[in-house]
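Researcher: I need the complex structure. Ligand is FVH. Inputs:
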Amino acid sequence: MVDQTAAQTVSVIGLGAMGTALAKALLAGGHQVTVWNRTRERAEALVADGAKVAAGPAEAMAAADLVILCVLDDAAVREHLEPAAAHVRGRVVVNLTTTTPEQARSLGRWAAVNEVTLIDGGIMAVPEMIGGPAAFVLYSGAAAAFDRYRAVLESFGRAEFVGEDLGASAMYDVAILGGMYAMFAAFAQGGAMVRTTGGSAARLAELMAPFLQAMATTLAAQAPGIDTPADFVPTQSNEFTAAAIDLIDKSAVESGTPTELYGALRRALTGL
Ligand code: FVH
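Model: Output:
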C-alpha cells in the first residue's frame, strides 16, 4: 500500500516541452525524480531543480516505482520501452504520449507479457498549464495502480479516470479535440462570411464565444440521445436541424465563401 502523502520515486522519460513541465511539477511536489532524455542537455537543465539524470532509459526505469513516459509518439515509446523490458518489470508505467486508442491497447498487450502495469493518459493542457487549476489529465487502464498513484498524478492537474479499457483515455482525448477543431472550423468559416458584410472575425469572436459557452452547457442533456437513443425524445427533429443547417449553407454560398463544412455537419447530425 502506497502512502499517498509520502514522496515517491518517479522517473520521467522524455523532456520536451511537456515532459519538462511534468518533471518540474513532480519536483515541486517533493517527489524524488530521475529523468532521461535523448538530448541530454534537456535533462541536465533539471538538475538545479533537484532531478537526478539517468545514463539511459533503462537506468531511469530501474530507478523508480512509477515511470512516466512523454515522448513524441508511439514509435518513440516503443523505442524506449522494448529494449528496457527487464528493467521496467514490476513497475507502473504511465504513458502520457499522445497515441491512438489501438496503439494504447497494443502497448497494453506488450506490458502484460512483460509484467508491467500500464496506465495510458491524455493530457488536456499545454505545458504552461501543468500543475495549475485548469489542467486535467485523462487516465485509463490499471485502475488499482491509478488509485495507488493518484496523489502523485494530481501534481499535473485534476486526474480523471475514464475506464479500464486502455484505449479509453485516448478516445476521450480525441473526442474532446474533435469538438475543439469543429468549433475552430466553424469560427474560421463564420469569420470569412461576416467579413463579406463589413464585419470582422474579432467582432464575431466577441459574440460567438459567450453563445458557444451557453450551448456547451446543453451537452449533458443531449448525451442520452447518444447513450440510450431508443429511449430519447429529441426536442428538435432531424428535419428541423437539417433545414437550419441548409439555411446556413445557403448563406455561405451567397457570401461567396462556399464550404464543405455545413454539408458534413448536416450529415453527421441528422443522417439526412
Ligand atoms: N505540448 C503540448 O501542448 C501537448 C499537450 C497534449 C499532449 N501532448 C503530447 O505530449 C507528447 C510530448 O509533447 P511535447 O510537447 O513534449 O513535444 P516536444 O517538445 O516536441 O518533445 C518531444 C520529446 O520526444 C522526444 N523524442 C522525439 N522523437 C524521439 C525518438 N525517436 N526517440 C527518442 N525520443 C524522441 C524528444 O527528445 P529530444 O528531441 O529532446 O531529444 C522530446 O523529449 C506528445 O505525444 C504530444 O502529442 C503535448
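Model: Summary of the prediction. The chain has two domains: 9-165, 172-270.
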